[in-house]
């Protein structure tokens, strides 16, 4: 999980380069969440990366 994931580089790289099964990015800015989703799709990892539009101080994850 990456908090404040911005444009999604860290979660995307985690699954591409380090073969993580999945990754979750948390970002409060809705435009960056959309950009992250687009970047994951372009990178071919949208099935293993997800981005949540949430405040990191209020995030609850049940994985």
TrEMBL record:
Alphabetical UniProt keywords: Methyltransferase, S-adenosyl-L-methionine, Transferase
Listed PANTHER family: METHYLTRANSFERASE DOMAIN-CONTAINING PROTEIN
Protein name per its UniProtKB record: Methyltransferase domain-containing protein
Biological source species: Nostoc cf. commune SO-36
